[in-house]
Records
---
Amino acid sequence: MGTATLAHEGAMGIVKERMDGMKAIGAAVKSIAPMMTGKADFDVSLAEEAAAKIIEHSGQNMIDRFPEGSLDQPSEASPLIWEDPEGFATIALELETLAGTISDETLDADARASLFQKIGATCKSCHQGYRVRR
């Protein structure tokens, strides 16, 4: 059993929904990594699919999955989410915006790599600021 599976064990309700959403975002990002970093040809269908999945679980949809006080175990949410809701919302909305450009066929390889780095940095900033490792 992988660590993501173990982390989700026992999760219920909104905590499970958001954990599943984060897992879906991670899988979508992983699926496009080769083409966004120039290691595979650009596939617009795959890019659109990944973008749709990230958009589905980011932005306001992500914000809505963190209602006040939803820290039930095994949640990895930091209380900072509710102490700094504007900062958290900014990151969630930024991820949605960035995902909206993934399938842009006019981007060259350098622009795709830069976009992918921005997506990774956005995820990392959220994990560092708003996630508690147990």
---
Amino acid sequence: MGTITIREVRQRWPLVEKRLAAEGELTITRDSRPVARLSALPAAKARPRRRFTAEWHARAMKKIWGDRPPPFDSGKILAELRRDRFGPRP
């Protein structure tokens, strides 16, 4: 188990994270006195990342709204929200 200062934790987190992965546990010190213990969590099982596709979106909308059209037009809502940044659309 290694030690690391609280200043290093604040200013050099990527290095602290690497040390933590290598050592498993670190003692955090302030003024040479231990104040906390930092331990690594067990690695979580990685889930495959799903990509957004138009087909997936269409299935989700059908599941939510069925055969009814949604009571809003998301294109109009987005255009209104973006109008102040991009100006009116032609």
---
Amino acid sequence: MAKILVSSCLLGCAVRYNGSHVEVHNNHFDWIIETQEIVPLCPEVVAGLPVPRVPAEISGGRGVEVLAGSAKVLGINNEDLTEQFIRGAKRALQLCLQHNIKYAVLTENSPSCGSDYIYDGSFSGAKIVGSGVVSALLKREGIQVFNQNIVGRLRKLLEVSRDK
């Protein structure tokens, strides 16, 4: 059984910016939740952001650039939330290291958790290829990050390692 970091909003917790959660209708996700040890986290909430909160997007890059200091996370009201997003990412990494977590299932498109796509910073609904701040930090530290749409890949990986 693996310990897996999972975005709280994927587990039904109403912690998203608008006070909602993300519905996941995926048998692979259900299998992971039922058979693995889940460590839930909303990095934005642990960083001190409220629920609900203003929508935020990465401006001027992707999560890697936010970590490097060359891009920012801005609220739709132009408030600079970079510090809070970095704090949430560091807390996620700390939790992974503390619990020897090697895998994470994080919410796609989020400026924190997006693993393959994030919004482009224009608040127009347009997406770009890239990772959010948490995903970028976890990947950099060798933690494999999946999202709710590709979680079947994680299931295969877990089943293969279990059979060895």
---
Amino acid sequence: MLDLAIIGGGPAGTLAALEARHHGLRVALWDRDRFPRDKVCGEFISSEARPILESKIPGTVPEGAEIYDAQFITNRGVSRTFGLPHPALGLSRRRLDHELWKTAEAAGVEAHGSEAVRRVRAPEPGGNRADAWEIETADGSVRAAKSLIIACGRWWAVEGLSSPASRPGLTARGDWIGAKAHFAGIPRRNRVEMYLFRGGYCGLAPVENGACNVCCLVHRQQVRQTTLKVQEGFAAWLAQVSRLPVLATRLRDAVQVSPVVTTSPVHLARRQAVQSGALMVGDASGFLDPFTGEGISMALHSGRLAGQAVAGAIIQGLDGQMAAENYRRNLSKAVRRGYWVAATARRLIQCPEWIRGPVTAPLPWLGGRLVRETRWRGNADEEIS
């Protein structure tokens, strides 16, 4: 029997696996994709997450782009640049996820790529399957595990658990659409640039090999007003969607060097940390607004926290419910303020046109405060006693 089964091999899932293996647990990790693969993401890794990556993939971190400051630009032409407390990192998800997956394999994690999990069955205390999860993959094989972690993103669906994709309150359409592509030929500034416009925002961040990641989140209503399709040319589509001359100018001489990747629906909200005893990590536990730049950090930290909770319970002979409760409590302490602050800033960005200008104009000057208030607030160096 496995000590821990993890569904989802992104940053959250692999960190949970690595943390559990560090404490001697038998771990299996499943992902429906084959690595390397791409994801819609701002590809900005805040300084709070860098120590984790420097310990897990030390050879890869130097390949990323150093990011020293951030710039916010509004649709009224207001711009503000502020220095980050410590250097951040720009690294593509294609590179990041692949390296973490390989590190998990090297650490002894039983890693199953290109293998989807079809359904899970929760433990039945007192029954024949007491204290065990059953994990059934698409090919019909079944494994048993003492604990389960869900790390398969914000729009996951696994039979046996109530997933966002099957919940009546969350529609498959949603309000927001995410898209990204890499470009060459954009002069590097060693900063992350955030362009705020009516119905969305777009971030530019340098990544490895001199490329620039251009990633946006756009309200569906704004997309309907465009005549171009995103796949017809990302830079031209962005210029039409944003109506920001400064953004169009920034991308004017750029050359797109990767396919456009899109994702929909995007629901921005904090969700439950535990379901039926399974621990939710990364975007499965909630999707933080990308303009905070804390998404990857929260994925890494929540995965590590969940791995610690499971390992601590098993080492100390505690039941799965105790691990789940410890994780729920510590995750709430770490993220609740960040979600509240991000939601408040999002409401300002979404204000009606006649008040959007006055209320968003101060955002560039508040950017440093926004960064500080949305960071992970847990103890990243916590160890199991």
